[in-house]
Amino acid sequence: MNNPFNGRRWRLSDPVLEVKNLSVEIATPSGLIRPVDDVSFTVEAGRTLALVGESGSGKSLSCLSLLRVLPQGARVVGGQVSFEGQNLLELPEAAMHRLRGRRIGTVLQDPHTSLDPLFSVGQQISEIIQYQQAPARGVARERSVEAMRRVHIPAPAERYHSYPHQFSGGMRQRAAIAMAVACNPSLLIADEPTTALDVTLRMQVLRLLAELQAEHRMAMLFVTHDLHIVRYFCDDVAVMYAGRIVEQGPVEQVFDAPAHPYTASLLQAIPKLSRRRTRLLAIDGQPPAFSALPSGCRFAPRCPLAEPRCHAQYPEWQPRAATLNGSASGAACWRSEELLDGRVNIQ
Amino acid sequence: MRIDRYLAPAFLAVVVLGALFAPWLPLFDRDAIDLASALQPPSGLHWFGTDNLGRDTFTRVIYGSRTSLSIVVAAVVAGGGLGCLLGLLAGYRGGWFDAIIMRAADLQYSLPPVILALVATVALGTGMVNLVMAISLATWPRFARIVRAEALHLRQRDFVLLAELGGASVARVLWHHLLPNMLTTVMVLVTLDIGLIVTLEATLSFLGLGVQPPDPSWGTMIADGRGYLSQAWWLTAMPGAVLVLTILAVNATGKLLRTRNEQPVQRPEVALV
User: Fold this and answer.
1) Shortest Cα distance from B85 to chain A (angstroms)?
2) What is the pTM of this model?
3) How far apart are alpha carbons A313 and A334 in whole angstroms?
4) What are the structural domains, with CATH classification, of chain B?
């Protein structure tokens, strides 16, 4: 299969997922809105890209559009999505159907609704294996017990027959992860997999995900709004604001020296135990409504560094020096250089 | 365990068993004409009396339940099945399909089911199959509407999305994930529907558009007895009473099932108070 971007065959060393200029529109009674606008990112094998942003910034919608399961009224209006060299947006539905579950696994936020209450956990994992690999019933069962063991569900053979309501929240999320990785996908889309969990369970689930990722060099797209998790768990980060990616790059680079005032403000808004007695910074105002977006930079109305040109024109992408692995890095801000040089400061 | 709660299911069981095993029960011949013992009131020999041709009314009520109940079963399967299928697809697929199905259901809803079934039997002609079709035509919208609403609600749940993402086909999602999760609702609908179908069947048969003589059904028996109302009240009253009691029993049983299903949900609420 040739890569739609460069015309050559996809190789194992190429990024697993490449998204270019993806845009999604939704028809609303008050007109078309574009909650995902010109979004580009890449995820490489064995690496984790965090998609960070406020609620409604287009993170989940971006993921759903990769899988082509958009809600009614929403449609992809532009861009390309290349997964292992195949353009997902142009793939026939039948091929897409084979890809989901087998090559792309998905974990969702709420473990309480991600399992069907009427079937045992084991049955549900077997079901996924049945769809994808269609082995004999006994084999599917063995494999699903194996999948449960891989996610460290204790006594998996006995727990096979347990129903979701007999599982605790953390255990349910493990079962949901077992369903997602049962067929060894090369890409795992995790849409806020730890948001609904207890703080004590988060670390366990994250460790589990890291472990599973290491086993098969799985690429992971990790949607979250917890910056701590991004810091300690992800390799790259893409920050979304009002449907657009405003900054992108390796986690250390972005966190140590943010090139976009929005990222900088977000990082300032994290409470830190070591920095006692300093005022916690908050970002004034609200993100704009998609039906009334500012004409220039979407963050400009809330930005402490906004200049007249920020309000007039959407900033061009300002690339940063190439990093070791050569991943896309930069920010959409007219003043990112000044911010990086330390000539301006958001406080 | 209170006995009166089980009265309705017990009565229903007797009616159903009677219908199932009628040919093996020690009954009279349902069609044997015996003019010498015509129009006899209820007695030890003829429990429900005899009709103008001397046929045993009790026997004919039992055989009538056979006809009536088989029509009920067929109509529930056909009408309920059609309604569930269309409702599931409409709720799951949405869009123009949903719009068409639901407008069709609305259209039917605006007409009383009896009128609709009446028109359908007139158009299709009489006979058991046509009768079932006519009744199904009148009852599917109720299933379609409620099942659609349930499907819309369940479709939002993550496990349905995950099943799709896991590679389940549309049929699999509908059959395996949506339908089992709305089974309680469908069961309640079925119990409500049975009452309506029994009434519809009796109404159509009463009007001569349903079951044709000499096959007995509760509706035809009530219609036949009407001419002798002043001399032989039992000809209409007995099948009428069985009809009313059956409908009541079905509704009571439905309610019993419903409360039983709800118990586990209610318990924590009570504990909170």
Assistant:
1) 20
2) 0.78
3) 9
4) 4-272 (1.10.3720.10)
